[in-house]
Design the sequence.
């Protein structure tokens, strides 16, 4: 009896073992893939002025930034045989210039942008600036002078497909960098160029009007738009306030900073508690806030004219100013949880070869440089993902755990939902990289000692 039981038990064991061998193997549980919100807690958007990508990064390895451009052939000139130019164009080598010798203010309003763009041929730049020299727009800045920017690109990420939301200059560039739209009657009327009187915002003189671009028929209505104190669209300020996320906008002065401080043109910020709490001057407080533990979750940083890269300043201080901001964050306790996005507000009229995709009647506008710096940024990487200013806002939403499109729906002209986030620039699986200081001609102390700026307001 004991023998039979032993045999039965053995048979049962073999049967169970056989059934187990046919069962599906247990699934291993993979660790979750880290997201931006797992690693990044602070986003710093550093905004500079009036440069195309090729004006600063022509010839950068791996970037779509050739050393020559295309121009419509004039009568008597020999058309180019280059496959990079349209038939009938000439190929123009980009000339090396310095900040001091660059041609100054090139036309870069809405109409000039359309001429430069020339329905995607990107060959009209010489026509938009006939009084600055035939090929003044076909230029790049001496690499020694922009070395801090090249150092950042080689250590971190250069995005070579960053496009403004709209054709045109600084006024709409800055608005869309905080709102992702400037539609005043969506989806067919949007702000364009700049208002009739400075400081181009809620503090402009009574009777000031703005201009707008109309979808159908596609044209600009000059100075027929509303007073530039906008409540027609939301901004990231409302989104962050509602989510109880801290933010600051660092400007060279709080009042009358002009179009470089766009929240002065946003009614609920200008006349609400944000005005005293979150608009900060001078801009150098970003350096001390990082040092003393006062950095908010989201920052926008704008310069003085001398430090802005703006061509009319004829100053080489801009790259050092940006390096000072990057170094301040990099040597602070915030480095391991930060991402810095350095972007230019418009192309400044300078040549660029990349035809901007036309996503709506506003643009996209002509390409600008963009640098992405973080301990989680890929090393020496050129991102070819199509970005727009809404991409920066979408990344802020992602970092703060907010859904894409938090500012407003695409049907009303907001771009933060449609835009690609900046994730291609990062590897959130890597260990945070140690920071290496960015060498620069001018020190942070130079900027801290800089006297208050009372430079004239930018008018494009």
Sequence:
């Amino acid at each position: 009896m004991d023998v039979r039981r032993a045999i039965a038990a053995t048979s049962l064991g073999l049967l169970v073992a056989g059934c187990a061998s046919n069962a599906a193997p247990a699934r291993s549980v993979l660790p979750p893939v880290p997201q931006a919100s797992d690693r990044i807690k602070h986003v710093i958007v550093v905004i500079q002025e009036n440069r195309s990508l090729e004006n600063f990064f022509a010839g950068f390895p791996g970037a779509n930034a050739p050393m020559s451009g295309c121009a419509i052939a004039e009568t008597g000139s020999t058309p180019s045989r280059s496959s990079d130019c349209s038939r009938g164009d000439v190929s123009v080598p980009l000339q090396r210039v310095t900040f001091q010798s660059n041609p100054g203010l090139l036309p870069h309003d809405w109409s000039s942008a359309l001429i430069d763009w020339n329905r995607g041929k990107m060959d009209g730049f010489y026509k938009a600036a006939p009084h600055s020299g035939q090929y003044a727009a076909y230029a790049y800045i001496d690499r020694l002078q922009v070395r801090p920017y090249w150092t950042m690109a080689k250590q971190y990420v250069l995005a070579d497909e960053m496009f403004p939301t709209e054709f045109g200059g600084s006024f709409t560039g800055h608005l869309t960098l905080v709102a992702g739209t400037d539609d005043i009657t969506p989806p067919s009327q949007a702000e364009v160029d700049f208002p009739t009187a400075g400081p181009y915002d809620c503090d402009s003189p009574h009777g000031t009007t703005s201009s707008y671009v109309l979808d159908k028929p596609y044209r600009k209505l000059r100075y027929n738009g509303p007073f530039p104190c906008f409540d027609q669209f939301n901004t990231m300020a409302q989104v962050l306030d509602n989510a109880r996320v801290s933010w600051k906008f660092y400007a060279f002065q709080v009042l009358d900073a002009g179009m470089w401080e766009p929240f002065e043109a946003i009614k609920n910020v200008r006349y609400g508690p944000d005005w005293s709490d979150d608009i900060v001057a001078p801009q150098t407080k970003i350096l001390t806030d990082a040092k003393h533990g006062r950095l908010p979750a989201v920052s926008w940083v704008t310069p003085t004219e001398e430090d802005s890269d703006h061509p009319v300043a004829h100053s080489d201080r801009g790259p050092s100013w940006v390096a000072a901001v990057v170094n301040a964050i990099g040597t602070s306790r915030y480095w391991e949880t930060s991402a810095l996005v350095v972007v230019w507000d418009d192309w400044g009229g300078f040549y660029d070869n990349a035809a901007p995709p036309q996503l709506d009647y506003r643009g996209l506008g002509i390409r600008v440089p963009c640098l992405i710096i973080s301990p989680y940024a890929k090393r020496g990487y050129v991102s070819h993902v199509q970005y727009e200013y809404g991409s920066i806002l979408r990344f802020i939403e992602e970092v703060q755990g907010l859904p894409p499109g938090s500012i407003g729906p695409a049907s009303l002209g907001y771009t933060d939902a449609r835009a690609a986030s900046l994730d291609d620039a990062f590897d959130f699986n890597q260990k945070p990289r140690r920071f290496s200081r960015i060498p620069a001609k001018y020190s942070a102390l130079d900027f801290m000692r800089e006297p208050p700026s009372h430079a004239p307001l930018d008018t494009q």
Remarks:
- Confidence is low (pLDDT under 50) at residues 1-21.
- The CA atoms of residues 140 and 445 lie 29 Å apart.
- The domain at 36-64+141-182+230-448 is CATH 3.40.720.10 (Alkaline Phosphatase, subunit A).
